[in-house]
Amino acid sequence: MTSSLEAGIHSIAELSRGASDLLLHSTRQKPLAKGQVLLPEGQVCKTIWYVEKGYLRTFYNKDGKEINTRFSFENEFVTDLKSLRSGAPSAFWIQAGEAAVVWEFAKETLLDLYRQSAEIESFGRNLLEQMLVVQEDHANLFRIHSPTERYAYVARHFPQLLQRVSLSQLSSYLGMARETVSRIRKNR
Amino acid sequence: MTSSLEAGIHSIAELSRGASDLLLHSTRQKPLAKGQVLLPEGQVCKTIWYVEKGYLRTFYNKDGKEINTRFSFENEFVTDLKSLRSGAPSAFWIQAGEAAVVWEFAKETLLDLYRQSAEIESFGRNLLEQMLVVQEDHANLFRIHSPTERYAYVARHFPQLLQRVSLSQLSSYLGMARETVSRIRKNR
DNA sequence: ATCAACCTGTGACATAAATCACAAAATGAA
DNA sequence: TTCATTTTGTGATTTATGTCACAGGTTGAT
User: Which CA distances in Å does A16 have to A22, A116, B4, B75, B184?
Assistant: First the structure.
């Protein structure tokens, strides 16, 4: 029972045995083939996923091109918070970038648990705060740095991203042309 | 008692009279002179502010230049969430951009209230979610749009920003040179 | 093993925005 | 009102990055 998920939950908030069990029993594991879609654009997001293995790719379509906004690797939680919260159709796709295993948390189930357990509501709050910080960092990545600096930043702070994600996919994530990434990579 | 603050709180979450009063009594009003600093870089952020009048400017120092990351106008909540949450020194300054009136919520007081009232914890969660969405939108502004497009986006969605914030301050917010903003402005 | 489909590297060229320099306009203090 | 200070506008020039075009490489299916 010392699962990756349990560790992931405890990295967000300290929970009592009881609260922890409530959460663990509200979720189920789901294996994913590479390319399998968890959330298509236009669908209302009703789930939070925890990545146990592989990675998920979040992207949207701009003029027919896929723009990646996030890669979620092992032990990360991911959702489309805006859609989840507002009930509006999602502007994003979420898809497995590799063969993957995720745990699914249904929004409605979580809301029920919040009502049952203050501890779990506190967990929910911590999870959101953490997502906020991740997002803030990523916003600043674009605000602060030029394309070349962004590559260096990611190489320094998220090296596995460069190893597991293809150059083309990376380029839209970094907000620059494929060719520019290729040239930056050459000069190192 | 139908204060701006009360309306601001209710725009985040529906609260019972009791919970609402608890929150309202945990805060105090603070008038600010133009330029007055609420949070200096390096200090741990322990407060969430609600802007009743005027606006607050959030910025950091990059190589001696001030880079604005946010302008918070009437009826908005603002803090440095990363510092608030982690207790790490803030990388940002928060300062009054005009003569202003704010309401201060001390972190410790809020945490006490969370323990006392599930409703207020729920309010806290909603507030964070809303901050997350605002941040996500702003991240996308940089990811999706070129400098020229960013100006157009802000003109369309946050017109008061162009009216109340000086061109120089705006330029760092939009991530472009002062001269570029001036030229864009000419061509409209 | 072969072949098609996709991914990556690289040159030539175009272009938006940055930088530099300075003039004009606006603001604010005495 | 006047003068100093700050902000904004604008031309000339430079530079980073994008776009286009195409040649190798890689990968995966049959």
Answer: 10, 14, 39, 38, 57
